[in-house]
Fold this protein.
Amino acid sequence: MIACMLLTRPEGLLFGLLLIALLFAMTWREQDLRSALRTSALPFAAYLVTAIGIILWRLSYFGYPFPNTYYAKVSGQPY
Amino acid sequence: MFSFLLFIVLSIVTLIYWLGYGRPLHGIDDANIYFRLHGELCFGHGFVWEQGGEKVEGFTSLLWTLIGSLCFLLYPCSLHTSFTSTEFIVDICHHPPSFYPLSAGLTGQEHKTITATDILILAMLFFPLGFIEWSILTLMETGLWIFLIVYATLALADQYLGHKRINMPVFA
């Protein structure tokens, strides 16, 4: 799920992190810190591997690290 | 069973909406940009607008571009209707897995095929204008995005409420 989110839309980076944080907080509240770290490890690893993979792929294929939509929206050009 | 019923109902509702909009064979304009990129990728030209052209990231969703290219592989590109219907089905398929846990979690009546809550949820989704159009008829990645957000959030909610533990490999 988390990995697919990152591949589906750029906002997936934010939503994925938020969901992992919620999972971590829930597990910590119900159990303890060690369990929370252990539970969140796999989703977080998936998140990191996917995020780094996308950035490296984009850098090697298109020559820039962030999504094209990011540059389009922060370029400051009116069109 | 509920997922299957929902798939059938959603297919019928989509058909009604599709007929109501004059049987469009294209989604919105952005979907047609996707179509172009799907085709070029399917032909092995890479992420380009035209063969031999500059590499361009003309899409928001990498995953939807890959899924669309797979749809192109299933049908010859000239059969646009078949391609469009395949994308419709792909989009429709995203919804039942999202709403099944929502329904079961809310009602606590997993043993029943369909409950009053199911019908209420479906009515809330199907009747207001906008949902079917944006999540299916546009042929954009919206259906896929809704599925991922809803399913992941409900998995967390289920764990929080103590209904069932998250399947961590699926969640990741």
Q: What stands out?
A: The interface with chain B takes residues 1-5, 7-10, 12, 15, 19, 22-23, 26, 39, 42-43, 45-47, 54, 58, 61-62, 67-69 of chain A (CB under 8 Å). The mean pLDDT of chain A is 89. The first helix of chain A runs from residue 2 to 8. The two ends of chain A are 35 Å apart (CA to CA).
